[in-house]
Amino acid sequence: MAERVYLTVGEVLQIHHQQINNYGGVHGIRDIALLESAVFRPQIGYYNSIAEEAAALMESLANNHRSSMATSASLLRRAHLPAGERI
């Protein structure tokens, strides 16, 4: 089984910035500590599959980090990744 590679906080911030530029909305993150918590949640070893890890990341980001509708849209786009893509 291939080793999983996870998104970093910096990568999530870059995705957020790109999505705001592409689709509109407000730049900025409400609480960086909550973002860090969400990004590291899939890595704690609790989840049994990559799908569960992706769902945990989506849930945390969608529930705790809505700074704009564009951010929510970017989360949905990242949720539908082809096999082998980063979560």
Structure description:
- The protein is an all-alpha fold and 87 residues long.
- The protein has one domain (9-79).
- The protein has four helices and no strands.
- It has helices at 9-23, 32-40, 50-64, 69-79.
- Helix 1 crosses helix 4 (69-79).
- It is elongated and about 40 Å long.
- The model has no long low-confidence stretch (mean pLDDT 80).
Q: Topology, pairings included?
A:
Elements lengths: L8 H15 L8 H9 L9 H15 L4 H11 L8
Helix pairs in contact: 1-4, 2-3, 3-4
State the end-to-end CA separation: 16 Å
SS-derived structural category: mainly alpha
Question: Which segments are poorly predicted (pLDDT under 50) over 5 or more consecutive residues?
Answer: none
Please give the count of helices: 4
How many whole angstroms does the radius of gyration measure? 13 Å
Mean pLDDT: 80
Largest sheet, described in full? none
Shape: elongated
Helix content: 55-70%
Tell me the number of structural domains. 1
What is the ordering of alpha helices and beta strands?
A: HHHH
SS elements, strand count: 0
Residues in β-strands, percent: under 5%
Short description:
This protein has 87 residues and is an all-alpha fold.
Tag the structure with descriptive keywords.
87 residues; 57% helix; 4 helices
